[in-house]
Amino acid sequence: MPQMAPISWLTLFTLFSLIFILFNIMNYYNYSPTPPSYSLESKITPSPLNWKW
Asked: Could you tell me how many helices (H) and strands (E) the chain has, helices first?
């Protein structure tokens, strides 16, 4: 089985590294969070604390 030359390993490493970096950059700038929707029905009502000692 023939072996690959070291320059081929170097080009493969740089190719996959560049693809990985570009993929991460694209995902970082494509992220668009949705703002939370506030509704009046979902208000948190505090319950009274009845401590029974």
From this structure: 1, 0
